[in-house]
Structure formats: structure tokens, C-alpha cells
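**Backbone geometry record:**
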Amino acid sequence: MTEVQYAVAEHIATITLDAPDRRNALTVEMSRELIDAARTAEADPEVCAVVVTGGRHFCAGAVREVLADVGRDPVEDTAYRNLETVYAAFTTIGTIELPTIAAVRGAAVGAGLNLALATDLRVVSTTARLLPGFAQIGIHPGGGHFSLLHRTTGSRELTAAMGLFGEEVRGERAVELGLAWSAHEDDEVEQAARDTASRVAADPELARRLVRSFRRETAPGGVPWEVAVELERSPQMWSLRRKHEG
């Protein structure tokens, strides 16, 4: 891997976007590397959680060349599949069976904001910038952007402000609006994300069962409480039996 770094420590996999010269804008190859890193973490039974970060610049979206190729011929096979690969970079992060946290410094723009919103939790710097940026360059949002915004905040108003009108949200304001869990000084963000991840890092099997139930019960539309009771019954019985035998 050349533009996506992967490391595991204390049962936490850290996936770092590492193309600072273009502020981690996603190329097709970088997207593939991100997908591979996510699948590597998921396949490792010792990994309990994943932290996604980009160092000083979280992710500036997709590189313009990918968008330009699709614009020239939206149904040309290679261009279509390349954009699909960029989408898969964040849909994969959002669906692997591990708890995921985005550690966001700098800007998360367009597809980069989608990547942050695809995770289960966001920890941001006080100077972080979260902005859609799609309409501002004359294109419609992609990658399920409106759905991700609304799923994260539950607010139609905020989804309109950002998705329709391109409002930018920074640092502590993101926490106030429900876009992030906590805000920290720049040099503390990654460690804060790892500290949060460590709370499920002692038990890989339980972490995976927890995130499966969490996502089922908090999916758009949700589930009735009585259904949630039944959904949770099986994994809870499994955990109780395991605890008793252990």
C-alpha cells in the first residue's frame, strides 16, 4: 500500500490516508487500497475496531479527473466503474462488521465527508471543516450524501443546510449539531479516537456482535422496540453463555 497506511495495535486497526500533496483526495487506486485495508481489518479475528484518519487533511473528496471522466461519458464502462470504486471506499468502511471511528483533522469535503459520515462515530479537531462542496463545484451530491447526513443527525434542517445550501460546519459546532461525538486539539484527535475504540478492543467477538445489532436497530426507519428486543435476544444469550463458561 502506497497511499493508504495500515497498522494494528492493541486490537485496533488504524487506516491512514497518506496523500498529503493533494489533501488525500481519492483516486481510483487509493480507493482500492482503502477497500483492501478495511477488508483486511474485517478478516483479522484479533481486530476489534477501526480508526480511519488522514493526518492533517482528512479527505478532500474524489480527484477531479474521476468526475471529469464520468462527465464526458457517464455510461462509458471504465469511467462508470471507477466512480463506483470511489463510492465503494466509503460504503465498505460503513458496512464492515467492526465498529468504526473517523478521526477528522483538516477538511472532510464531498466524498471525504461521506467517508467520515460512513463510520459509526466521528472524533474531530476543533479546527476541522465538514462541508459537502458538491453544489459549489456545480455537481449533484453522490454516494447517498443526503441519506448519510440525515442518518447521522436525524435533522432535516441540518441536512438541508449542508446538502442543499453547502453550509460548512466546524469543530465544536459539529459536536453541538450531532455530526461528531467530541472535539479536541489537533494533536489529540487520533489518540482520542483510539481511546474511544479501546473501550471495545478487549473482546473481538463481542465488538462484532455489538456493531451488527447497533446497525440493524439504528438503520434509517429504525425498528419497533418489541422487534429490537427480539433482535438483541440471541446475541445477548450468546454473550451470557460465553461469560458463564469463561
Notes: The longest helix spans residues 225-245. The beta strands are 4-9, 12-17, 49-53, 100-104, 107-109, 121-125, 129-131, 169-170, 182-184. The chain has a mean pLDDT of 92.
